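Lecture notes, unit on binding sites. The following record was shown on slide 14. It pairs a sequence with FE2/S2 (inorganic) cluster.
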Amino acid sequence: MNGSGWNYSDKVKEHFFHPQNILESDEKEYDADGVGYVGSPACGDMMKVFIKVKDDRIDEMKWQTFGCASAIGSTSMLSVMVSRDGGMRLDEAWKITPEMIIDELGGLPANKIHCSVLGDKALREAIKDYYRKTGQEDRIPDDDKSRTICNCLDISEEDIRMEVLEGVKDFSSLQERTKIGTVCGQCVDDAKTLVNFYAGKYYSEEIYTGNNKKDTDHA
Ligand code: FES
């Protein structure tokens, strides 16, 4: 394959043939501060993004994909955009759009634009993962919390949160009640992270006081 005759810019070809920042080691050895996963191997596309964070900036972004040339080219470009000049601030990186990546790439064929959305989505998931792990969940915009976690069974993060509020405290009880993860299984890791996160949030102390830590006097 030499790329000649493709309707791709030189920049896309450069990033496709020499992708930057692919995670080549075992992800457990990489020890990322945040990990984001989107897509489904069942439909041929998947993207996993790993970030290291320093001083609220992206110190490094690594990624893995089973995507096409456009997904590879655009995610490689994205990894360069967020880590150059000392690293992009997390709140700026959150706002990166496919259009911004396509711009840097010098365009993409119109029928390939949809392939470029995986990288920035997975990056936002990785930033969210970092916010949760570091107790900064309040930085996640509210409208993002209703995203779908299990595409096979149409179960959202909000559904999982409600299950936890109704008493579910671990993944096996969640699965028993909702059947989440029993079709393709791709959502299992995300669902485990969320059920653990919300169970920790609501049940780690004897009395849950919401965000108002002082309001402890009505047991
Ligand atoms: S996404 Fe397939 S079982 Fe959840």
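Take-home: The first helix runs from residue 10 to 17.
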